[in-house]
Design goal:
Layout: E1 6-7, E2 11-12, E3 51-52, E4 59-67, E5 77-85, E6 95-100, H1 108-114, H2 121-126, E7 127-132, H3 149-157, H4 166-187, H5 189-192, H6 197-211, E8 216-221, H7 223-234, E9 239-245, H8 250-253, H9 266-270, H10 272-288, H11 302-318, H12 326-336, H13 343-355, H14 378-388, H15 398-418, E10 446-453, H16 459-468, E11 472-480, H17 490-502, E12 511-512
Parallel strand pairs: 6-7, 6-8, 8-9, 9-10, 10-11, 11-12
Antiparallel strand pairs: 1-2, 3-4, 4-5, 5-7
Helix pairs in contact: 6-7, 10-11, 10-15, 11-12, 12-13
Length: 540
């Protein structure tokens, strides 16, 4: 979860398997009605008219119509853009695996096809894999607060990149997001009140019904874990299998359902700043312990490389390199830590360019999706985050929050503080949100996957989710980066495949490792996208 960092189409944001003791749960059960405490009237499932996304494509596309407001079924409808890749194993199909790539603001119709090969082979063989652009996002009925691309570009140019530095930039940042909030309120205020995670969870249940599955099989990464936790508590009887990878603590996201003004912003409550600081320290230590052929930013030792980083940050505060300011660089680094291979090697190259006073080159291109790259501006992720998650409403407090976060988390603390500041002036609150409880008994267990060094969703959040959900099991990934899916571990893939196919859970206390350690190959190639959209790289 994917907030500043790679934005789709706009911005860049060792298999160790423990002794196998199977813990199975049958993936069958009664098809009970959903319960969310405030029953929603029955809604007919949308019809999905699947067609190839483009001629000759292996991906099929469809559009689903759903109510804007599930408590007003005679009112406005909106459209959801949906994409599917059929199961590749003839005669072995089990059902549909729904996937959310994170964000909020990540367009699934773009990111699922781009990252399809990362899904375990057995999962691709046995399941149709379906994703969608959530309401408010991408090719679905989207929050778009500008009349033209030129207008959007002008707005982006009006604010500092990454995070503001100094009073003048702070004033410009706050004014820009206040202007964005005003534009959004003027264009479609009704939509802004109906893009909550709970609304999207109800959409997901509509899509489940549309493909004919009696229960849901689901993989969510980053923000997609909060969507999964919300679905699991709105529709606990509908859970067949649900894996949540790189988790958001729902209590932190909702500020424990408090009605008081929040003291901290969303990402500081989650501990994203501490997670990013921890993995940045690992990045610098590992970089310093290898050669410049493998990590271009290496200064020959861990300490020397950390010192080099501190000097570069101070230098960029005083003398940017072209458009690469301190703020832009910190944002790029936090985002660049998401993907270890090839991301860390490319990130080290950009830092070394800046050290030598050169403007960094362009990152590796991403695979072209089978759909048009949609507009995914900042307002799409903000519409979800700000309507769902409480944040301080006084823009003036964020500088003090930044300084406090910097004491505990350094440069990463500054970044994660300002990531939530757009919510200070956001004009809408969710009409039909969900703030808990989070412990409703699900029909089958939920598998929670947590990576020990994660720059956006720290491992402690995975531990919290495993404790808070009524029926959850924690699988630890002793590695680096944002999500085990996009930082592959054969160990994690094997356990996830067994779980999705027949419900077998890993033994308690199981820990895995990634297949490829950081800086193990000198010449990376290709690209990976994660959690795109306005909040990509922030949460993803």
């Amino acid at each position: 979860m994917h907030i500043s960092g790679p934005v789709a189409g706009r911005r860049r944001y060792a298999a160790l398997i423990a002794t196998v003791v199977t813990c199975s749960t049958a993936l069958t059960g009664p098809d009970l009605a959903a319960a969310d405490g405030t029953p929603t009237p029955s809604v007919p499932a949308p019809k999905l008219d699947w067609r190839p996304c483009v001629q000759g494509s292996r991906f099929d596309c469809a559009t689903a119509k759903v109510p804007l407001d599930y408590r007003n079924l005679r009112g406005r409808t909106i459209e959801l853009a949906v994409v599917k890749r059929k199961a590749t194993g003839p005669g072995r199909r089990i059902g549909t695996l729904f996937f959310n790539p994170g964000g909020p603001g990540g367009p699934g119709t773009v990111q699922m096809p781009q990252n399809y090969e990362f899904f375990p082979r057995e999962v691709r063989e046995r399941f149709d894999i379906v994703s969608w652009d959530p309401r408010g996002v991408g090719n679905s009925t989207a929050v778009n607060c500008f009349a033209s691309p030129e207008e959007a570009d002008a707005w982006i140019a009006s604010k500092p990149a990454g995070l503001p530095v100094g009073e003048q930039q702070r004033t410009a940042w706050i004014a820009a997001y206040k202007n964005l909030a005003r534009r959004c309120q003027q264009r479609d205020p009704e939509l802004l009140r109906h893009v909550s995670t709970a609304d999207t969870a109800r959409d997901l249940d509509q899509l489940r019904q549309a493909v004919g599955d009696p229960q849901l099989t689901y993989l969510g990464i980053s923000y997609g874990t909060f969507l999964g936790a919300t679905y699991a508590n709105l529709f606990p009887a509908k859970i067949r299998a649900m894996a949540l990878d790189s988790n958001i603590d729902p209590q932190a996201w909702t500020d424990h359902a408090s009605n008081e003004e929040p003291r901290l912003s969303t990402f500081l409550r989650m501990g994203s700043d501490l997670g990013a600081a921890g993995i940045l320290d690992q990045f610098l230590a590992l970089c310093g312990s290898t050669t410049t052929a493998r990590c271009a930013f290496s200064a020959g030792s861990s300490k020397a490389t950390r010192d080099k980083w501190d000097e570069l940050m101070q230098r960029l505060r005083e003398r940017p390199v072209g458009a690469w300011t301190y703020g832009r660089t910190v944002g790029d680094v936090v985002s660049g830590l998401n993907i270890v291979n090839p991301g860390w090697t490319e990130l080290a190259g950009r830092l070394q360019d800046l050290w030598q006073g050169r403007v960094p080159g362009q990152p590796s291109p991403l695979p072209a999706p089978p759909v048009p790259n949609p507009y995914t501006g900042d307002e799409q992720g903000a519409a979800v985050l700000c309507s769902d998650s409480p944040n301080p409403r006084d823009a003036g407090v964020y500088h003090a929050l930044e300084e406090a976060a910097a004491i505990r988390a350094g440069d990463a603390g500054r970044f994660w503080t300002w990531a939530a500041e757009p919510c200070a002036t956001w004009p809408a609150v969710a009409a039909n949100g969900y703030r808990g409880p989070w412990n409703k008994a699900t029909a089958h267990p939920v598998l929670v996957v947590g990576t020990t060094y994660d720059p956006a969703t720290p491992y402690r959040d995975a531990q919290a989710v495993a404790e808070e959900l009524a029926n959850a099991h924690l699988l630890t990934n002793n590695g680096y980066g944002h999500s085990a899916l996009l930082n592959p571990s054969s160990c994690v893939n094997e356990y996830e495949s067994r779980y999705f196919i027949d419900g077998t859970l890993p033994p308690a206390g199981t820990a895995c490792r990634p297949d490829t350690p950081p800086f193990s190959t000198p010449k990376p190639s290709g690209g990976v996208t994660t959690g795109g959209g306005a909040l990509a790289g922030i949460v993803s």
